[in-house]
Design brief:
elongated, about 100 residues, 4 helices, mainly alpha
Length: about 100
């Protein structure tokens, strides 16, 4: 990316927020395609890019470049998506007779 934009306050808003949500959604699609979730559609319903961005960027990380946050989202989202897939599996199992 190499945008030189810096996130200095929370909540992230405007163009920074849009870029990070887009990055989170793109990373989610890559991860969900790779993990082959048993309950993919239910996993997708649990995904919320805005909430992920809001919760993963914390005050102790600031100031931080937008490019660095985008990189961190890409690297660490896999763990979050796996957790969502596990939650989806549990929900699916609980709804079975």
């Amino acid at each position: 990316m190499d945008s030189h934009a810096v996130i200095a306050s929370l909540p992230v808003a405007g163009a920074d927020r849009a870029v990070l949500i887009e990055a989170a959604n793109a990373a989610f699609e890559r991860v969900i395609g790779r993990i082959e979730a048993t309950n993919e559609e239910l996993t997708r319903t649990l995904w919320d890019a805005e909430r992920y961005v809001d919760n993963e960027i914390t005050a102790d990380m600031l100031p931080i470049s937008r490019d660095e946050v985008t990189y961190l989202i890409d690297v660490f989202l896999v763990h979050h998506v796996v957790q969502l897939a596990v939650a989806a599996d549990k929900q699916a199992a609980e709804s079975m007779p």
